[in-house]
Specification:
The complex is a heterodimer. Chain A contains 14 helices and 14 strands. Chain A is α/β, with parallel strands linked by helices. In chain A, the strands form five sheets. Chain A has a five-stranded mixed β-sheet with strand order 10-9-11-8-12, sandwiched between helices. Chain A has a three-stranded parallel β-sheet with strand order 4-1-5. The chains are: A alpha/beta, B mainly alpha.
């Protein structure tokens, strides 16, 4: 696991050195993916609700469905995805080096990641925020009471930086326990090595949902200490590929807004609503502008569903309410520009 | 034959041919030079190609380069540091903390593994059946299991200890919990530093004295026992210094406060698990090296030493060990290098060594190449230093052939 990670970083460093003789004559990601016939998608290895293989070994979750939607738009077949498991630490080298075409891995959109890593975030598929989880037996009700606590945190994340900022701002001290592997850090928390486990609230909810009967032992503290807009990431300088990934996400939001679902999409082809006609490629020729088939959004909705369907499938079972992740028309932040 | 006759003899007139440079492919000198230039050129070209290609690709992909990030605020929390550190410090300081953490576990680990390995190695040669079997089982079990597995096992065991409020209390004010080992520790004052310096000075003086006594023994044959002087210098001197400076002695006892113990000294579970794993694993290899070294010495050496009237201890110390060390030291170098490099497995159990901190730095700054270069430089420096020291030591104890 560790070795795989290190191998990843080294491989990335090496490929940067040798990659395709020179980037200048390298073909665009869009054409490369099309020629290859599969989308290489970087995901996390085991975050329930986002990307986690089920008992049959099929990847399930909001993030992996995002990858499937891109494949559906490009190839008309949502199964043409190769999932590449990445850790918090090797995810960026994997994308930089071209090992993956798109990274959908609960990754927070920040200035530094766009300005110095050479990435672009195509949008947000989950508005998250960092929170703290403690054991009920500890009797703590607020993050302000955590002075002197031992905190479990994963390295190489914005979480780690927010944590030290928060304690510094509130003039409290803490002891970090920094372990990379999700399983190990959760074990450390369960065993009581740490008083507190901090992560994005979605991730904490995902953790609690996997605890079965013990879920009641854990409490999420009310404080949300950061903004964590999570979304798909692509390499800079690849406009056509960026457009595709971005608009697949928007198309799913637009479909939810227009009430188009995987169940009724065939009926909707006959709809008289011009917005739906444009979205499903009946009129407008929008797919061609993206370099795709005009039925691109139809394929996405038919095979993967709209955003609400993805949410119901993956996030609802963890008991996380839609909240700010609702559509703008329902008081949330999810807003797609016009598909026209 | 007279000299003139030699000069006249045609058999002696022929000189060996002088090696002038002829520009011919048949000339081995020319051939060697050509080959070396070609190979060097090829290597230089590959390096240049890799570097220039990397630089261009980084630029095209708009990835920041250079070591400027070292001066920026790190913001990373670090669990244990041997020097003052806070998240407001720079990346350079965070990396320094990582290097020191690596050195700490490597140095303590190497010393303990050597001691344990030597004991187990000698135990395996014991005439006592039980002792030698136990040592054999230890070696076979420990060296056959992957180190990572052992580390996770020890770390799991540490976590299985009760929480701080129900901590085990084996003796005195020592507490064992899943937060680590807590023990009373004296409040450090200048007198203690002075005593520590006196202790080091005592060791140096003992060593010098031992040389003096040895020289006297060679000159006069008279042996002077060293141990009373050693005791006085190594134990007596620091105590005298400490007493002279007022004998400060305030013990800081760990006490439960809030979430955890405060006060006293701490050994974190991560460090303890890593050290335990590294020492037990490496000691198994060292035991075999020690056993091989002793068994490599012919039995006749023992018998000859016995015939000289040396005691069993002197036989081992003066005759067997100096010869065994020649066999033991070179492979020991490899073991010290291994323990240093294996300490990078620390990341799996959350001990923040150089690899862990450099990896986090890479992730926060996105500068993988610089980060990997730093890790490589650190390990290369440590490893070459160990090699250089061990080679020097090896040369010193090598059999002086006259």
């Amino acid at each position: 696991m560790r070795n795989a990670m290190r191998a990843g970083v080294f491989a990335a460093a090496f490929t940067l050195g040798t990659a395709g003789l020179a980037v200048a004559q390298q073909q665009s990601t869009f054409d490369a993916v099309k020629a290859r016939g599969t989308v290489n998608c970087g995901v996390s290895t085991g975050v329930a609700g986002f990307s986690n293989p089920d008992s049959q070994g099929v990847w399930r979750g909001l993030d992996v469905d995002g990858c499937r939607a891109v494949a559906a738009a490009l190839f008309g077949d949502a199964s043409k995805v190769r999932f590449v498991g990445t850790t918090t630490q090797n995810r960026f080298p994997a994308l930089q080096s071209g090992e993956v075409d798109v990274l959908v891995r609960t990754t927070t959109w920040t200035l530094a990641r766009e300005a110095s890593l050479g990435f672009l975030f195509t949008g947000v598929n989950f508005y998250d925020g960092q929170a703290f989880m403690v054991k009920r037996s500890l009797g703590v009700n607020s993050a302000k009471e955590l002075d002197g606590a031992t905190v479990c945190v994963q390295p190489g994340t914005t979480t780690e930086l927010n944590l030290s900022d928060y304690f510094r701002t509130n003039r409290m001290s803490f002891r970090p326990v920094v372990i990379e592997s999700v399983e190990e850090i959760r074990n450390a928390f369960i065993s009581g090595r740490c008083d507190v486990y901090t992560n994005d609230s979605s991730s904490l909810a995902s953790f609690r949902s996997t605890q079965g009967a013990n879920a009641e032992q854990y409490v999420l503290l009310p404080e949300i200490i950061s903004k964590e807009p999570l979304g798909p990431v692509v390499r800079k300088g690849d406009a056509k590929w960026f457009d595709l990934v971005r608009w697949v996400g928007f198309a799913q939001l637009a479909a939810e807004e227009l009430g188009v679902t995987s169940a009724n999409v065939d009926e909707m082809l006959k709809s008289q609503n011009p917005e739906i006609q444009r979205l499903l490629g009946v009129t407008g020729g929008l797919g061609e502008m993206l370099g795709l088939d005009n039925r691109w959004a139809y394929n996405v909705i038919k095979q993967v569903g709209n955003f609400e369907e993805m949410w119901e499938r993956s996030i609802t079972p963890m008991g996380v309410p839609r909240g700010i992740n609702n559509l703008w028309t329902k008081g949330g932040l999810m807003y797609a520009p016009p598909v026209r | 034959m007279p000299n003139d006759a030699i000069a006249a003899d045609p058999r002696y007139a022929r000189r060996p041919p002088t090696r002038g440079m002829t520009l011919s492919w048949r000339d081995p000198t020319v051939r060697n030079i050509v080959w070396q230039v070609l190979i060097l050129g090829a290597v230089a070209f590959v390096v240049w190609w890799l570097v220039s290609n990397t630089m261009r690709n980084l630029e095209v992909r708009r990835i920041a380069t250079g070591f400027g990030f070292l001066g920026r605020e790190a913001g990373l929390p670090i669990g244990e540091a041997m020097v003052e550190y806070s998240p407001a410090d720079t990346y350079a300081r965070a990396l320094l903390v990582g290097v020191l953490n690596t050195l700490r576990v490597a140095v303590i680990g190497a010393v303990l593994a050597t001691i344990l390995g030597t004991i187990v190695g000698i135990a395996r040669l014991s005439r006592n059946w039980l002792v030698s079997r136990l040592a054999a089982v230890y070696v076979e079990v420990l060296r056959d299991l992957p180190l990572l597995l052992q580390l996770l096992f020890w770390y799991g065991l540490m976590q299985a200890l009760p929480g701080p409020r129900q901590s085990l209390n084996p003796f005195g004010n020592v507490f064992l919990s899943n937060r680590g080992i807590k023990f009373p520790w004296i409040v450090w004052e200048p007198a203690h530093t002075a005593a520590l310096l006196a202790f080091v000075a005592g060791i140096a003086a003992t060593w010098a004295l031992a040389r003096l006594f040895r020289a006297r023994q060679f000159a006069t044959g008279q042996r002077t026992p060293i141990w009373p002087y050693a005791l006085g210098l190594i134990a007596g001197l620091p105590i005298a210094v400490w007493l002279l400076m007022g004998a400060p002695w305030t013990v800081d006892v760990p006490a439960l406060r809030g979430f955890n113990f405060s006060g006293g000294g701490t050994v974190s579970p991560e460090f303890a698990a890593l050290l335990l794993g590294l020492v037990l694993y490496t000691a198994a290899f060292i035991a075999e090296i020690v056993r091989a070294g002793i068994q490599a010495i012919h039995n006749g050496q023992w018998e000859a030493a016995g015939a000289l009237g040396l005691s069993r201890g002197d036989q081992l110390r003066l005759i067997i060990l100096p010869q065994a060390l020649r066999v033991i030291v070179p492979p020991m170098t490899s073991q010290y290098l291994n323990i240093t490099k294996n300490s990078s497995l620390a990341v799996a159990i959350g001990y923040q060594d150089i690899v862990s901190i450099a990896n986090t730095t890479i992730n926060q700054t996105g500068q993988a190449i610089e980060g990997i270069a730093i890790i490589m430089m650190v390990y290369l420096t440590i490893s070459l230093s160990i090699s250089a020291f061990m080679n020097w030591y090896n040369a010193r104890i090598a059999l002086k052939e006259r």
